[in-house]
Every structure is written in C-alpha cells, then in structure tokens.
Amino acid sequence: MTENNLIYAWRIQHPDKKQYTWHLSRSPFIHCPLDYVLSTENILNILKSTTIKPGFKSDDALVSLSLENIKGEKGPGYFKMNNSILLDTEYKKKTNV
Question: Whole-angstrom Cα distance, residue 32 to residue 13?
C-alpha cells in the first residue's frame, strides 16, 4: 500500500466501525479483514460510499464501492478514419481484413 500510495478507503469512511470480510462460522469463531477497498487520493475524492455486506451462502462478505458520476465538458469533436489504411497489405494481414 505504501509503495503504491494506496489508501484503505473503507477505513477512511468508517473509522470507528468493526466489520470483517471473512468469517469462520464454527468453533473457533474467527473474523478477518481479508478483502480491502483500496484507493488513490484522486479516486477518494469521487468515492461516494464503501460497504461490506454478508455474502450469500459464503464465508466471504461482499465488498462494494460507489463512485460519483462525473460529467466532463464535451467539446466539439468528430471521428474521421483514414480509409487509405484499408489498402495497406500489412494492415490487412495483421487484422485479417
């Protein structure tokens, strides 16, 4: 985490909560945080929520996150393909055209 500048996003959003992503339901009862929601600082800014929910018929929990939908400004644009590339034999060989 330190080497890649990652942050434990779930812990940032839930600093006082104790919740685990894996459990052993028979004796000895064990709970562990095996799965993590990791993020960079940039993603943390658009992270709406992180949750840990019980898994269905599993000892693993469901870990989910929700990101804000950011709508960037659209500028004028168009796509124009250079049709002459379709005549290139090397291109045809590589793409099976």
Answer: 19
CA atoms within 13 A of residue 81's CA, in its CB half-sphere: 5
User: Among candidates 64, 52, 60, which has minimal Cα distance to 23?
Assistant: 60
Read off the tokens for 12.
């940032």
Assigned domain for 30 exists: yes
56: domain range?
Answer: 1-68
Per-residue pLDDT tens for 61-80? 788 888 888 777 777 888 88
pTM: 0.49
Domain count, the chain: 1
Residue 86 lies in a domain: no
Q: Spell out, as residue ranges, where the chain has pLDDT lower than 70.
A: 22-24, 26, 31, 33-35, 97
Q: Share the mean pLDDT of the chain.
A: 79
- Strand intervals (E) in the chain: 7-8, 22-24, 30-32, 38-39, 47-53, 62-67
